[in-house]
C-alpha cells in the first residue's frame, strides 16, 4: 500500500526534480502539443459560438483541407497558389454547407444539427478520398524540421513554427472578433439568433463567414499536423483530441481553447512520462478526458465558459 | 392504419392504457412477432440471417438502451461502445469461469455488470449537461477500451487479445460458438430483444419513464415537483447500460463469434447514436427502424452497383458508400428531424382518415 502511494505521489516528483532539463523538455513538448490541440479546438469554438452547432466534421475539414493542399502541390502548384486555392475551396465548402445543410435545419434542436454534421463528416470523408486518393501523403511546404538545443533543452523547429503560427492566428482571430464590424455581428448572433436577426444582422452571411473562418483554421491545422505526421485518414481522428480541450476551456471561449489546449497538452505529456509507466503506458487516449472530467466536476461550464444560469 | 377503431369502447383504465389499445394493432403486432420467429429461420438464406437480421436485432437492443438514456432521460451519451464492451467481456469471463451456467443467465448478469459500470460513469451527469456530458462520457469509452486492451485477465491471457464465444446450449440447442446454426442464434437474439423491448415499452409508460421525461424536458422544474435528479439520472444510466451490456454480449456470442476491443471503439458508439436519432428520439419503435436503416443501407449500397451491372473498384465503392450514407443522414434530418418513427406515425394518421381529407 505504502509502495503504491510512494510510486504515485512521491517518485514522479523525485524524477522531475532529479532531471530538470528533461522536465523542461517534457513541458515544452506539452506546450507545443497543446497549441496544436488549441488550433483544432479553435475551429470548433468559432462555429459553436456563432451558430450553436457542435461541428463534428471539423476533424474531417482539417483532413479535407490537408488533402486538397497536398493534391494541389503534387500537381505542381507553387505553395502560395496552392494555399490560395485551398482557401477558395474551403470558402466554397462553407457556402455549400450553409445552403444545403444549415439553412433547411434552422431552429432545430442542437442535437439534430450535431447529427447533421456527423453526416457531413461521412460525406466529406468519402468525397475527399475520392477526389484526392486515400494513401498516406507527405506534406512539405518548406517548414524546416530539425532540432536544436538551447541550454541543454531540445527544441524542434517544426513544433516551434506551429506554436508561433497558432499564437499569431489566435491573436488575429481575437482582433477580428473584437474590432471588426463582422466580428461584432458574429458575437451578436452568438448571443441571440432572433435578436440579431431583428436588428438586421444577416444570419446567412454570418454563418458563411464563420464556416469559412473555421475552414481557414482547418487549413492551418491541417498544414501543421500534416507536416508533422503526414496526411492520412487518421488526421480526422485528431478532432477527438480537441474535445477534452473544448470541455476544459468551454465551448464558447477562444481564450478557453488556448488555455485548455495548453493544460491538456502539458498534463498529457506529464501524465504519460511520469505516471504512465505505473499502469502500463498508452494512457494518452483517455488521460485528457479524465483530466477534463475532473475540471468539469468543479466548473461544469469549463474554465472560461459562460456561466450557466437556468430558470424554470 | 387503414382500419378504424370505431366501436371499440374502453370501459376500464387498464384497457385505455394498453400498449396497443386497438384490436387490429394487437393482432398485427402479434402476427409480426410470430412471423419473425417462424419465417426467417425457415426461408432466409445464411447470408441474410448472419449479415442482416442478427446484427439488426442486436443493434436494435443497443439502440433501445441508448434511447432510454438519450431519448427519454435526455442525457446525451457517447459511451455506448464502452458499455457494450463491458457486457461482452464480462459475459466471456463468466461463461469461461462457470461453463455450466445457462448462457441467457450469463447475458443477464453481464448486463448487470455493465449497469454497475454505467452507474459509476453516470455520476458526472449530475453536474454536467448537454455536449459537456457527451464529451465526458467519451472518457468512459476510451478508458474502458484501454482497460480491456491492457489487462490480459479479461481475455483469459489469450496471446491474440481476442475473446471467442465458446459452445453453449439453451434447452439442449446449441446457440453460441462456431458450431451453432445461424437460425438458433437468430431466434435467441429475437427472443431477447422481444422481451427487452416489451420491458422498455412498459418502463417508459411507468412512473420511472415519466420521471425520465420530466428530467429531459426541464430538469429544474422536474426537481421542484419532486423528481429526484440523482436517482432518476442514475437509474437511466444503469438501465441503459444494462441493455447495452446485454447487446454487447450478444454481439460477441450471437453475431461476431470472436472480437478484439476494436469492435467496440468509438465508431460503434456513433453508430448506435445514429440509429437512435434517425429512428426517432424517445421511441422504442424508432430504435428498431433506425437499426434497420443503418444495417440495411450499407447492404443496399454494397449490392446496388451489382444489381445494375456496374463493376466499381472496391476503394471507389467504399468512398461512394460513405458519401451516400452521409448524404442520406443529412437528407433524413432535413425531411424529418424527429426520425423514422415520426414518419410512421404521420403515415398512420393519414391512412386512418384516407380517403377523406379531414
Structure description:
The complex is a heterodimer of chains A (312) and B (358). With 312 residues, chain A is mainly α. Chain A has one domain: ABC transporter involved in vitamin B12 uptake, BtuC. Chain A has twelve helices and two strands; from the N terminus they run αααααββααααααα. A two-stranded antiparallel ribbon of chain A has the order 1-2. In chain A, strand 1 (147-150) and strand 2 (153-156) form a beta hairpin. The mean pLDDT of chain A is 78. Chain B has a domain at 44-264. Chain B starts with 12 loop residues before the first helix and ends in a 5-residue tail after the last helix. Chain B contains 14 helices and four strands. In chain B, 71% of the residues lie in helices and 3% in strands. In chain B, strand 2 (168-170) and strand 3 (173-176) form a beta hairpin. In chain B, helix 4 (80-97) packs across helix 10. Chain B has 358 residues and is mainly α. In chain B, the strands form two sheets. In chain B, strands 1-4 form a two-stranded antiparallel sheet. At the A-B interface, helix 5, helix 10 and helix 12 of A face helix 6, helix 9, helix 11 and helix 13 of B.
Tell me the series of helices and strands of chain B, N- to C-terminal: HHHHHHEEEHHHHEHHHH
Give the count of helical stretches of chain B: 14
Q: Main sheet of chain B?
A: 2 strands, antiparallel
Content-based structural category of chain A = mainly alpha
The assigned structural class of chain B equals: mainly alpha
What strand order characterises the main sheet of chain A? Answer: 1-2
The N- and C-terminal alpha carbons of chain A lie at a distance of: 49 Å
Question: What's the pLDDT, averaged over the residues of chain A?
Answer: 78
Based on the structure given, which CATH architecture of chain A is correct? Orthogonal Bundle
How many beta-strand segments of chain B? Answer: 4
Give the SSE order of chain A as H and E letters: HHHHHEEHHHHHHH
> Biggest sheet of chain B: strands side by side, in what order?
1-4
